[in-house]
Fold:
Amino acid sequence: MMLATVMVSFVIKSFFAFQAEGNIVGAFVMPHGGIALDPRYFNTTNATAKAQAWLVHDAAEQVGRQIEDLKPDTIVLSTPHGIAAPEDFIFYLSPKGSGFSDTDNCACPPCCYNLSVAMDTKGSQTLVSTLKAEKENVSYLSAFGPPGNEDVPFPLRWGEVVPLYFTKGILNHSKVIILSQPSRRYTDSVEMIPELRHLGESLFQILHSRPERIVVIISADLAHTHMKSGPYGFSTAAEPFDKACGEWVATQDSEKLVVEAAAYVDKALSCGFTGLVMLDGMLKASSMHWESRLLVNFHPSYYGMMLASFVPGQ
Structure:
């Protein structure tokens, strides 16, 4: 009887140790605004804004180092500014991706931040076929050749390049899967909430069952209406929207995002909202305890920029 009890205890402990380790070794929210790349070119006379820009940049470098330390085999990146379809979530199905970004107030050239990545075509194909079988609105795009065998890299821009640029130290060893949010996010992000959370749950179950180490990155800027002089004008919704997103990170309380932030998003104009909701679905599908950390949540310019990490707890 004692032996049986010990064996049962060992099995239970082993099961929970396996669950705690998991295959998704971290999830991160990273901005794609050019300020993050190099604040030296950020043209402002506001000392506070300049200081915040550097804090955003430093936090992005810190997150990049953390991702490198996790040694992921695969990085799954959600972008709101990719090549998009109206309805479907699109996976890029090419062996390579390549592109550039510039930074605020300094266009390319001369400020060219170039990036090339190896993409996991087989993993993307598996995700699309599995998610389609679960009735998710997903598809894939190839570019300039037979799907998965193109000679020309798939075009990337700031939504993918900026966050991945901070992880470039491991991109020779890690493959990338890119998921592009549909263009209906511009008008229907609140209506998409149930779908996004369900997609996040499905993604977690599939990714968590894979043998390799996986990091998830949500490319996201927050409200784009912090300044009257900005291209989208000013809205009183911007500040409470960004605050609610930060509180969601700190508390992992879904209502902070899908109720509080959602109440402001139509006027706040956040490109990253749908990716955040999808990530919330992923985290809530897990039995693991996630340790979350909000590194920064500022708006040095007209748009909000947040860096956050979620890693499995002990």
